[in-house]
Amino acid sequence: MSGKKLSKSIIIYGLSNGIKSLVPFVMIPILTSYISPEGVGLLSLLETSILFITPFILLNIEAGVGVEYFNLKKPDLAQYLSNGLLISFVSFCIISLLFLFLGGWISELLGAPQSLVLLLPIFVLLRLVPTLVLVIFQAQQKSVSYLFFSLFQTIFDFALSALFIMVLSRGYIGRLEGIYLSFFITTLMGLIVLYKIGYYNFDISKKVISKILRFGTPLIPHAIGGTIIAMSDRYFIAIFEGNAEVGYYTVAYQIGALMLLFSRSVNQAWSPMLYSLLTKKDYASVEKFTGILFVVFLVVGAGIYLLQDFIFGLFVAPSFLPAKQYITLLLLGFVFQSLYFLFTNFIFYSKRTGVLATITFSGAVLNLVLNFILIKRMGVIGVAYSTAITWFLFMIATFTVTKFKIYKSEKNS
User: Fold this and answer.
1) Nearest to 68 by CA among 221, 279, 249
2) SS3 labels along 355-407
3) What separation in angstroms does the CA of 233 have from each of 46, 210, 253, 257, 376?
4) N-term to C-term CA, the chain
5) φ, ψ (nearest 5 deg) of residue 234
6) Cβ within 8 Å of residue 314, ≥6 positions away
7) Which terminus of the chain is more solvent-facing, meaning fewer CB atoms within 10 Å of its CB: N or C?
8) Is residue 340 a contact partner of residue 398, using CB atoms and an 8 Å limit?
């Protein structure tokens, strides 16, 4: 991929992710106008629970497909993907049985109807096929196909959610219905796409299953750790400071996440190019583009910082201006996270996912400790400090492992 094509892909992925990211912004006034604070809180808890069980059902199969796309011939990749779907379905059945036995306890813990709790594993499974289709489009560098598939799901998500909440008065359940009915529709579409491009080969292979599990299982702690870092701060703020501060912090988090919107779009275009360059052993290009992207992330982060007043005035109601006090630290954390993405690509390519799992899980434990200590001493701003510190240490750890162990080993092989 040339630099020009990379730029085009970044723009398309940015457009796709930008439209996706607009949904939470547009949904804020709808949720707060039509759903009670308790309903919004419960919706957040349910979404957090879904994120928590996702790695146990999806087993990071999409990450494996993204890497193996460059290593396997099409029939072998079809077998890998199909065996992955089977493994995920078996895992879904096991998790569903656990929820059946523990449903009453989970329901009481979350304060949600047990009938809804039992649907959580289904909600997770509905994410699998759409995610796989997007990963394949990304690996094939079909950014336009990626855009239209993603855009279709996003439009359905917003339209159905607005219908169920505003017209049918379904409350927080309407938001869940909008999200996961759209996932159901795109799952059906995704199955058709996979069939048409020839990615079905249900020849069950113990060797392939073992390969999938060796790659995906070590990433479970990594995914759980990421969920803890992304979501635990809300719980600490709610417990120690109250739901109003959660609202301010969430707004600041969403504004700061504009940095992630950009860096994830870049990474979606860059990672398949990186894997291709590493396969070809074109290390000069790898180092050149990595250096350029490092500088670009720093410049974009500085730009968002300088424009924060304009962004707040454009998107945020005056009553939420207290959120501005958190934006600088959260933005700094997101810049560190963006740089972290550059280094984790090398770890995924080398398939040393156990190393990444160790780093992430350790970081999650550290983040919980910092959240507890700093929020008691400094209030909500302490949680923002915790986020920035955690992602800085993540960046340093992944850079060290990548630079002095993985990349060095790749060049000498």
Assistant:
1) 279
2) HHHHHHHHHHHHHHHHHHHHHHHHCHHHHHHHHHHHHHHHHHHHHHHHHHHHH
3) 16, 36, 11, 15, 13
4) 24
5) -60, -40
6) none
7) C
8) yes
Record the tokens describing residue 192, joined without a space.
């058709």
CA distance linking residue 388 with residue 376, whole number of Å: 17
- Which residue matches tokens 């990421």? 226
Contacts of residue 280, defined as CB under 8 A and 6 or more positions apart, other chains included, come to none
Q: Nearest CA to 10 among 297, 409, 324, 330?
A: 297
The structure tokens 């990304």 sit at 138
C-alpha to C-alpha distance for 30 and 42, rounded to whole angstroms: 16
User: Per the structure block, which two tokens stand in for 224?
Assistant: 């759980």
Residue type for position 402? T
> Longest Cα pair distance anywhere in the chain, in angstroms?
62
Instruction: Quick: pLDDT tens for 14-67.
Output: 667 667 766 776 776 677 677 765 676 677 777 778 888 888 888 888 877 877
Q: What angle do CA 25, 30, 34 make, to 5 degrees?
A: 155
In tens, the pLDDT along 133-153 reads: 888 887 777 777 888 888 888
Helix (H), strand (E), coil (C) string for the chain:
CCHHHHHHHHHHHHHHHHHHHHHHHHHHHHHHHHCCHHHHHHHHHHHHHHHHHHHHHHCCHHHHHHHHCCCCCHHHHHHHHHHHHHHHHHHHHHHHHHHHHHHHHHHHHHCCCHHHHCCHHHHHHCCHHHHHHHHHHHHCCCHHHHHHHHHHHHHHHHHHHHHHHHHCCCHHHHHHHHHHHHHHHHHHHHHHHHHHCCCCCCCCCHHHHHHHHHHHCCHHHHHHHHHHHHHHHHHHHHHHCCHHHHHHHHHHHHHHCHHHHHHHHHHHHHHHHHHHHHHCCCHHHHHHHHHHHHHHHHHHHHHHHHCHHHHHHHHCCHHHHHHHHHHHHHHHHHHHHHHHHHHHHHHHHHCCHHHHHHHHHHHHHHHHHHHHHHHHHHCHHHHHHHHHHHHHHHHHHHHHHHHHHHHHHHHHC
The confidence score (pLDDT) of residue 6 equals 59
Mean of the per-residue pLDDT values of the chain: 82
Q: At residue 232, what is the residue type?
A: S
Instruction: Check if the beta carbon of residue 43 is closer than 8 Å to that of residue 165.
Output: no
